[in-house]
Structures are given as structure tokens and as C-alpha cells.
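Example 3.2
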Amino acid sequence: MRDVVLWLSGAALAFLVTAGAFLLLANLATAPSEKSLNPDGAPGGSGHTLDLQLDRERLASLEPLPDQSLDLAVENEGDEQLTHVNVTLIVSSENTALSDPRYYRQTVEKLPVGGTASVRFEFDLLAPEQPVAIPPAANPEPPREILELRATTPDGNSTVRTVILPP
């Protein structure tokens, strides 16, 4: 009986030492939360800062139909005038197996410091024809559409907004 108690105490001690070592290693490998939440500065530090303002009410009213439109505002929050800001809208499906993304592009020629430019996209939200028939039981609800809006300067600075539309 004494051997069993000694063996169980040794096993429990070994377990506690091993668990403590793993917890110590896990705590050493993580960065402080304040540091990991703050994004790094813009690449190159050029001071060009863009922002995209979206109309939430219009986004909520989008339907899976052709000839939809979306207005957005591109704002220059930097300290220099921007030229040739490319604004891209990518429409894709959350079903990546059948996804065929559609790209729409606009260019803002000049964007003064603190200025805002309006951009209007005309696009189709009608799902493309699916080449492979899927049994109805395999996919009970239609996949959602994903809108990715990206504004990019010639220097490579960009901002991205992603919207997932309900089915």
C-alpha cells in the first residue's frame, strides 16, 4: 500500500511540475496585450492616411439583384495632397469553392489635405451561375456576399473595409 501511495504522489508531483513548466513557457511567449492590439505605422512613414466612409443604411438595403449602387467617401487624413487614389470594390461569395470575384475600380485624380471625394460604384449582386449542382440538403441557405472596399495611394498606403451582406 505504501508503494502505491508513493507512486501516486510522485505522479501527481511530476504532473504539477510539467503543467507549471508549460504555463511558464506560454506566458513567456505572449506579448503584452497593449502592444499586440496597436497596429504598426503606415509603411514608409509617408504620412498619407486614407479613410473610407460607408453609408450603413444603403449597405443594409442592398439586395441580390443586378444594377446595385453604393456611394462612399474617400477622405485624406494625411498632411499632403494625394493624386491617383485607386478605389476598388471586390464582390465575392463566402462560398470559396464556387466563388468568382468581380472587381470594380474607380480613380480619384486629386484629393486635397483634409478633403473628401465621393465615389459611386454600380455593380451586380446577382449570384453568378453555379457550374456544379449542389444538393439542396448540402446547402440549406444561400451563401452571403462579401464586399471588400480598398483605397490605395501610388505609394502603397491603403485602407480596407469589409462588409458581409446577409443572405
